[in-house]
Amino acid sequence: MSGGLVRGGRARRSERAVGVVPAVAGASAKAPGAAGVAGASSTPGASGGSGASSVAPTEAPLLDVRGLRVSYRTSNGSVDAVTAADVSVLPGEVVAVVGESGSGKSTTAHAIVGLLPAGGRVGAGRVLFEDRDLLGLRERDLRAVRGRSIGLIPQDPMVSLNPVRRIGDQVAEALIVHGLASGKEAAERAVAALDEAGLPEPALRARQFPHELSGGMCQRVLIAIALACRPKLVIADEPTSALDVTVQRHILDHIEELTHAHGTAMLLITHDLGVAADRARRVVVMSRGEVVEQGPAERVLTDPEHPYTRRLIAAAPSLTGRRVRPRPVRDPVPRTEPLLTVTGLVKEFALPRTKEGPRTLRAVDDVSFTVRRGETFALVGESGSGKSTTVRMILGLEAPTEGRVLIEGRDVTRPGRAEARALRRRMQLVYQNPYASLDPRFTVSEIVEEPLRAYRVGTRAEQRARAAALIDQVALPADVLRRKPAELSGGQRQRVAIARALALEPDLVVCDEPVSALDVSVQAQILDLLSRLREELGVSYLFISHDLAVVRQIADRVGVLRAGRLVEKGACEQVLAAPTHPYTRELIAAIPGRRRPRPLGAVS
Amino acid sequence: MRGYLLRRLLQAVVVLWAAFTVSFVVLYLLPGDSLSIRLGGLEGTATPAQIDAVRAEYGLDDPLYLQYAHALGDALGGDLGRSAQTGAPVVRTIADALPQTLALTGCAMVLAVLGGGAVALAATFTRVRALRQVLLSLPAIGISMPGFWVGLLLVQVVSFQWGLLPAMGNEGFESLVLPAITMALPAGAMIAQVLAKSLTTELAEPYVETARAKGAGRVRIHLRHALRNASLPALTLAAVVAGNLLMESVVVETVFSRAGVGRLTAAAVDTQDLAVVQGVVLLAAVVFVVVALVVDLLYPLLDPRVGRTV
Lengths: 604, 310
Hints:
CATH superfamily of the largest domain in chain A: P-loop containing nucleotide triphosphate hydrolases
Radius of gyration of chain B: 24 Å
Distance between the termini of chain B: 6 Å
Number of strands of chain B: 0
CATH class of the largest domain in chain B: Mainly Alpha
CATH architecture of the largest domain in chain B: Orthogonal Bundle
Strand content of chain B: under 5%
Structural class of chain A: alpha/beta
Structural class of chain B: mainly alpha
Low-confidence stretches of chain A: 1-56, 329-333, 597-604
Keywords (chain B): Cell membrane, Membrane, Transmembrane, Transmembrane helix, Transport
Number of domains of chain B: 2
Distance between the termini of chain A: 38 Å
Largest interface: A-B, 32 and 22 residues
Radius of gyration of chain A: 26 Å
Helix content of chain B: over 70%
Helix content of chain A: 25-40%
CATH class of the largest domain in chain A: Alpha Beta
Number of helices of chain A: 19
Order of helices and strands of chain B: HHHHHHHHHHHH
Largest sheet of chain B: none
Strand order of the largest sheet of chain A: 6-7-8-3-9-10
Domain ABC transmembrane type-1 (chain B): 98-299
Oligomer: heterodimer
Pfam family, one (chain B): BPD_transp_1
Number of strands of chain A: 20
Family (chain B): Belongs to the binding-protein-dependent transport system permease family.
Largest sheet of chain A: 6 strands, mixed
Shape of chain B: flat
Number of domains of chain A: 3
Main location (chain B): membrane
Mean pLDDT of chain A: 82
CATH topology of the largest domain in chain A: Rossmann fold
Mean pLDDT of chain B: 85
Strand content of chain A: 15-25%
CATH architecture of the largest domain in chain A: 3-Layer(aba) Sandwich
């Protein structure tokens, strides 16, 4: 098993291609040829759609990848990550490469500029850029292309800047290494590039270090670096997947504006079909190392040819209005008291003292809501909104500064020890990252039995039987019981985590971003499972998420958190259809896939 | 900043006091005749009058806490007692030996940092696999060679066979070369090991990919991006190594017959000259405190994320 699986989030290094999916890549439809450099807007309103493929290309492609094949050397021999990739980009055109983790999309992007991670090797194919095969270039010549003619916007902005060098120097370096400017002039142009990338107070930022900037600001810095030399092509590798949704939209808007203004072509790598639908004129769908379908965005997304594309569209939360939750709970008689009551919850953290005296940060500010039995209540918010702190207080892991948390009328915030233990049993947690939340040395059976052992429920044999029953309930085959987490996929691991949470038959399961580390098709399956379990077991969910598109599918009621305050709450449909708070409206507008004139995913 | 330094100074005082107390307890209060210890093994030849004088001077008939208070008071006044061997004040004895040892350990440290750094940089930079393997195995060899053996070997080959450098003594810069190399070998090996490891880690970080995507060359990436990030763990280790060099000097100064704190320590332990031993213990404590302070002040300069806790 490669070490990549242990990494958190989307483990893109452990890409592998197993099995063969027939390629439909041969008939790569070219986009409307009339696209001059200036007119290369990918505004989705332009209905280029169906007729586009008949128009012959009038321009030679800027980038033309043919039959690319990339493999990684691992301890078990060589594994193909990309087996057949054909992608072409016209000057000024925006092309999206869409696929799930392991599809080889990121590997393809890196192979183009010769930046494969250690062990990666290009086996076959051509990468023609401005009529030169980049694969045949010597390192020195390739360096002249990188940054100068092809810019790269990396995936995770928080770790993609050198932590010990000033922002301005890192931007100026792009100009300096290509001899475009030096010294004072380079510094000035770096500030100008930061300004252009939409960073407020660029001169001040240039003197700061990356850790002093937010994720969104760091990504703007990386955009400034990628565009500093006015490249002809920008490769954006999941440029916003590590950012908050509202920030995501602004960043994508800005990249679009800039590339449009300079006539820069863009190869946009994304797992999010909604993003591809919004931004690209052409879409390339990759699966298991192969391009399975490509064509004009409109056509691919409304009339997909390949079954994989259809599945991807059907699963994409942002594109479909699909709901997986069962009928809304219609209590014949409203229960006398809710399961969970949170009233006036406040949490303050002490900040380092300044001259003005002690300061505090109000992370959670007067939050009140209730969760009824059998109901799914979703708390939505971006990073720093206080949703994690709220959850920690509900679970009794953090003492609130003010306010109360009641489980059926009993206060969980100030219980005695024995009582806290009994209450904790009624609330269980499913964590965000299934790659980190399961002990790698335990077998699946031991993982699921652990809460039973901790509370001394039943004999060893009964515990084992219960674990087997739970694994069956989360729709995993019985043979995973003896396996270790490392042998399971992300979705399977999350199922194990859910089984563990259900072991003690809790009343409330707190799901902390349970699907945000998973691929879209797996996301849909996990949401289905959660919904089915709720119907079968009658548990309540407190669902924490940053993603309204996911929440829309599963929640009965929603609360929107912003900077520690609950700015809006109400029934899910109502909040999404008629938001009253401007922030909620902003969140809804940030869901990708909404720029399409007509709803997508009309797949029979 | 001033508040920070003041706090660090206070910490240093506490560390020194602790070192003094522990060494006092260990050296003087352990089982054994404290009188014979004070006499430094001379009790067979000492006259009763001399013995009485020693008794009176150290207050050996006083209760222990008074002896301790007395010694601590003297130490605060800069008086650590007299050497039983020479009768000279301990502070002066050590102060006389210190410059020689500082010159030696300073040279060794510079050699270790330059040599270790060069090996680590070359090992992570080269694309020739065989060369990389050889370079990466050097630290392990360097660490596993005992200092006295290396010293004797160098003396044998360089001094006796080739007649290039003096084998012993304190005369001039030439006499410094062989002992400094002997000391620098294990120290540099440790620095090379840690630096190579953290360079390898840093070179796989995403920010390096960003730099490559800019079109930056390998030398620039190695020196301007990875090295500074990788130097933090190496710096921490270098501080420990620098402190250890004082102990290393005991062996090396003996092998090369150099005068210095190391030789002094060896002789003092040999003759149970406990006042001198305690002086050396305190010196070691001072060295560690100073080195730790220097490193802590360097950290924020290297990494802006390490805020000084002002």
